[in-house]
Automatic annotation (TrEMBL):
<dbReference type="InterPro" id="IPR050881">
    <property type="entry name" value="LL-DAP_aminotransferase"/>
</dbReference>
<comment type="similarity">
    <text>Belongs to the class-I pyridoxal-phosphate-dependent aminotransferase family.</text>
</comment>
<dbReference type="Pfam" id="PF00155">
    <property type="entry name" value="Aminotran_1_2"/>
</dbReference>
<dbReference type="InterPro" id="IPR015424">
    <property type="entry name" value="PyrdxlP-dep_Trfase"/>
</dbReference>
<dbReference type="InterPro" id="IPR015421">
    <property type="entry name" value="PyrdxlP-dep_Trfase_major"/>
</dbReference>
<keyword id="KW-0808">Transferase</keyword>
<keyword id="KW-0032">Aminotransferase</keyword>
<protein>
    <recommendedName>
        <fullName>Aminotransferase</fullName>
        <ecNumber>2.6.1.-</ecNumber>
    </recommendedName>
</protein>
<dbReference type="InterPro" id="IPR004838">
    <property type="entry name" value="NHTrfase_class1_PyrdxlP-BS"/>
</dbReference>
<feature type="region of interest" description="Disordered">
    <location>
        <begin position="391"/>
        <end position="414"/>
    </location>
</feature>
<feature type="domain" description="Aminotransferase class I/classII large">
    <location>
        <begin position="32"/>
        <end position="385"/>
    </location>
</feature>
<feature type="compositionally biased region" description="Polar residues">
    <location>
        <begin position="404"/>
        <end position="414"/>
    </location>
</feature>
<dbReference type="GO" id="GO:0010285">
    <property type="term" value="F:L,L-diaminopimelate aminotransferase activity"/>
</dbReference>
<dbReference type="InterPro" id="IPR015422">
    <property type="entry name" value="PyrdxlP-dep_Trfase_small"/>
</dbReference>
<dbReference type="InterPro" id="IPR004839">
    <property type="entry name" value="Aminotransferase_I/II_large"/>
</dbReference>
């Protein structure tokens, strides 16, 4: 029995594996690797959240099975957050469910609503679960441009005209991982109007809602009138409160989609450990100064990275949101591709980044740089990168202007 299982056959080799293998080998040799490849927050969870966890876990009654869709207080706390932050009213009973991080929620909703052969519209490049959650569930994925503008809207219209069967769902993710693109409410209004007309569900990934640096404060798609008729939105405490390992997220919005996710999760899990859910209530309902502090931390790191590489021959567009910079590979290395470039940067500069190909074929030509080290380490990384570029004869006069939006390649996606 050597034949690979059907769903496994639909998953390509893990693009990041080559870089991860090289990174592990370098560390085994005792080399100091500055790892900017994984979006793993390095700052501690705020103390008042940790305190509530410890307080709750001391009660042995909290050690029992929990509630798959989230304890009532947690669902109410998420509804309270949405009302304060987005002026969106949610029914905690029918329009909110707790998930084990947004990734688990997206994957399980894909399983709940997808039939084999369904067509799903996914930005390319995008976070892998946006595409592969539906591929695992048996769907076919059609790529659309990742930048929130007219090109994406025109691609949606072409997809409806030319896809068989007609698309059943659209994924959006702003602020985006990996591209750091940010959308405003006017763009969401156009997306909602189109999808309501065509009866297409929208799954919005808003995991980076509180990590923003520019003039656009990321809105919720649920703030658009009528959005709850077709849309569900995933949020997470991972980045907002530096709680990545706690695995605490949410889905909110359309009652039909929430009910589908609730039902399938009831067969799969008993929910997050109760003390984690109670601590999550403390995060959402307690002091919010920590959110602004975490946002300021990532902005400072972003600025250190950009200043450190300024004039090096590698111009990187300033990200307006998320904890990543989406960096076009310097022209001199463009032909080798993102995987080979990432391995070369690791080997010669001791800096690990994520190859853009891992986020979809239209991520090729870029790498994702995570703002996941302190400013001292980031300065060390930029010095090493400048030395690496100089050793290859790269100087500012050879650097082409960095693109400020999606590439011509993305414009061509249909």
């Amino acid at each position: 029995m050597t034949e690979e299982f059907h769903r496994i056959r639909r998953l390509p080799p893990y693009v990041f594996a080559e870089v991860n293998k090289a990174k592990a080998a370098a560390r085994a040799r005792g080399e100091d690797i500055i790892d900017l490849g994984m979006g793993n927050p390095d700052s501690p969870t705020p103390p008042h959240i940790v305190k509530k966890l410890i307080e709750t876990v001391a009660d042995p009654r909290s050690h029992r099975y929990s509630v798959s869709r989230g304890i009532p207080g947690l669902r109410k706390a998420l509804a309270g957050y949405y009302e304060r932050r987005f002026n969106v009213k949610l029914d905690p009973e029918t329009e909110v469910i707790a998930t084990l991080g947004s990734k688990e929620g997206l994957a399980n909703l894909a399983s709940a609503i997808t039939s084999p052969g369904d067509t799903i519209l996914v930005p390319n490049p995008s976070y892998p679960i946006h595409q592969f959650g539906f591929i695992i569930a048996g769907a076919s994925v059609r790529s659309i441009p990742a930048y929130p503008d007219e090109n994406m809207l025109r691609a949606l219209e072409r997809a409806v005209r030319h896809s068989v069967p007609k698309p059943t769902a659209l994924i959006v993710n702003f602020p985006s991982n990996p591209t750091a693109y940010v959308a405003d409410l006017d763009f969401y209004k156009e997306i909602v109007a189109f999808c309501r007309k065509e009866e297409i569900f929208i799954l919005s990934d808003l995991a980076y809602a509180e990590i923003y640096f520019g003039d656009v404060v990321p809105p919720s798609i649920l703030a658009v009138p009528g959005a709850k008729d077709i849309a569900v939105e995933f949020t997470s405490l991972s980045k907002t409160y530096s709680m990545a390992g706690w695995r605490m997220g949410f889905a909110a919005g359309n009652p039909q989609l929430i009910a589908a996710l609730t039902r399938i999760k009831s067969y799969l899990d008993y929910g997050a450990f109760t003390p984690i859910q109670v601590a999550a209530v403390a995060a959402l309902s307690g002091p919010q100064d920590c959110v602004a502090e975490i946002r300021a931390l990532y902005k400072e790191r972003r600025d250190v990275l950009l200043r450190g590489l300024q004039g090096s021959g590698w111009d990187i567009p300033p990200p307006e949101g998320s904890m990543f910079a989406w960096a076009p590979i310097p022209e001199a290395f463009r032909d080798m591709g993102s995987v080979a470039f990432s391995k070369l940067l690791l080997q010669e500069a001791g800096v690990a980044v994520a190859p853009g190909l891992g986020f979809g074929e239209h991520g090729e030509g870029h790498v994702r740089i995570g703002l996941v080290e302190n400013t001292q380490r980031l300065r060390q990384a930029t010095r090493a990168i400048r030395g690496f570029l100089s050793a290859h004869g790269i100087n500012p006069t050879q650097a082409p202007p960095a693109p400020q939006r999606q590439s011509a390649m993305e414009d061509s996606i249909s």
